[in-house]
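## Example pair
The file below holds two records. Each record gives the amino-acid sequence first, followed by its structure token line.
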Amino acid sequence: MADETEKVIAEFVERMGLILQADGKPRIAGRILGLMVVHGGPFGFTELAERLSVSRASISTNTRLLEDLGIIERTSMPGDRQDYFRLSPQPYARLLRGIFERMHRARDVVGATRAALPKDMAGAQERLAELDAFYETLINNFETVIEVWDAKGKSPGSQKRELTEQPA
């Protein structure tokens, strides 16, 4: 039974790597995320490197990326100088907001390009207008997704983690 469970977890971790890689992120970042989703953490550099069979340098690079995205956070253990990592509170809401911000930046680029191009470039103006409308639709609908997610509140796992971390 334990072997089957480990097989399922290993497959999940690998598939998360492929999913993030398809989104333009390093595969190892997805594997780190997958491991943290299943096991929670916190994990130190050495443990992550051993569990994922990658170098500590790769762990360092990819934990920094996930930290910058707000998906994981750095923490420490009393009496231990090593850094540890765990999922941030509401990591999925942070992912949504990052995507939302990138869509806004893309729409700003489209708008600036439309304004800078001569109006007599009708074909380009039309295609840029269509791209602008595309981003506008995505942004409007994404706002709804974020509102729905926020209305649901925190995931049960996040609430449990916060409850166990509060001082007695």
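Second record, same layout:
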Amino acid sequence: MSEPVRHNERRSRFEIFVDDALAGFAHYHLSNGVATFDHTEVKPEFNGRGLGTTLVAGALDQVRATGAWRVRPVCPFVVTFIKRHPEYADLVVP
């Protein structure tokens, strides 16, 4: 079963859940159509499951689906994810 990634606009973050429990999030700041992803966190009890990768992929997929934003990765995890998954490079602002 895949873990859902939900956009929590009020808290400016994408969240991932396991059995309805918040397992982690990717926070961003939105300005002028650019979402600067500055922090990604998975709770320690959920480490080792690949949830960070699922979370960031889900967040970027949702950003792409809306077509309204670009991204600026400053969080090291998001930077590394995009380097390893060049299919998301088109979302990154120079």
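Notes on the second record: The radius of gyration is 12 Å. The domain at 5-91 is CATH 3.40.630.30 (Aminopeptidase).
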